[in-house]
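Appendix B, example 12.
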Amino acid sequence: MGALTSFLLSNFPALLMAVGAALGAFSLLRLFLRTRPKESEEWRDPPPLIFKLFKPIIRLFSGEVRNLMSDKSHANTQTRLSAGGVNYAIMAEEFLTLKIVCAIFAGLLSFILYKANEANGGLGTEVSAFLVLLPIVGFVYPDIWLRDKIGYRRRRVAKEFPFLLDLLVLSMRAGLNYSTSLGQAISSLPNGPVKDEFGKLLREIRAGKIRRDALLDLAARMNINSVHNFVAAINQAEETGGEIVDVLTVQAEQRRSERFNEAEAMANKAPVKMLLPMMLFLFPIVFMLVGFIMMVKLAESNMLPEALLRLLVS
């Protein structure tokens, strides 16, 4: 392991410097030989901080990265961005470019850290191995960030979606049509993914888009099972001539039941998740306290061996 780490570290800096020099030269060449028209950014949502840090270089190479991506890979990445609610802030090719830039930046950082500590006698094998793996960590970090974003968004949808369905049912039973009821329900929701996505749905319907197609696009953007079930039920009710109010009532009951079952499942998992921290941190302290009290009692009753008593006193 030590020989392999030394070999990688001895060749890795030169490779990183060569890649960095090539990218820098290519960037300057493009800036001088090619002028790109300034694109309008009005349609974009505010990008995350990690994207802002590397925005110039990402925009510079995103076009070339798009040519390297297959249509399937581009569609899958776009679906994940839509599920995370950042598809209007980052495009698929920009997300892959961000991963590559983060890997290069992490590689340069590992090289700097290695050279800074090399004069002090070098680093241990474990630290050196971590520095070698740091570019991989940089490459997968955007995926970890996007996965957390998707998980947070889905938890918000599970919390707010039943409330939206209840408002829809109340508005439609009061005599309003579907579009007007949807507008009233959206205006009563707190800011969040449900309000944003269903607001887009309402704008598309009012702009003349067929409601079935708008609902299918909504399900594709959010990529959540509860929304897929809602869209399928609404479209089926329209095709068969069923009452949308009855469908919405059933959907609201199902979403509340799913949320309750999920909360119950999480509550049942809590004791199991707490077992390991308790064994690592709480139980040793309890055993130490009990053992100390037992030692004191044994010493007071002269039942403790003399050698062990001298060891404890010293």
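Residues 2-155 form one domain. The radius of gyration is 29 Å.
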